[in-house]
Amino acid sequence: MNKKTVIRLTSFLLLIVTIICVVTGIIKWPGLIPALGLTYRQVPVAIITDIHDWSGLLMTVLVMVHVYQFRGFIRRMARDFFS
């Protein structure tokens, strides 16, 4: 795979994992389940929590890879910003 394909794949995976993390985080929001008229027995909170935690960890790894991929751009922008 060439560099452009790897960057696109990383960006796409980062987008998907971020969406999963955000959606599960909203579902876990304190008081939301009862506000929707649901009970905690009707919603698999333990599974949602696991998905949320793992997607957060994967998102962290993908962000670090993404920053590494764009390290030159980040350096140039920082240099321009601070000069």
From TrEMBL:
GO terms for biological process: respiratory electron transport chain. Residues 9-68 form the Flavinylation-associated cytochrome domain. The chain crosses the membrane at residues 12-31, 51-70. SUPFAM superfamilies: Transmembrane di-heme cytochromes. InterPro entries: Di-haem_cyt_TM (IPR016174), DUF4405 (IPR025517). It holds the Pfam family DUF4405. GO terms for cellular component: membrane. Keywords: Membrane, Transmembrane, Transmembrane helix. This is DUF4405 domain-containing protein. It comes from Methanospirillum purgamenti.
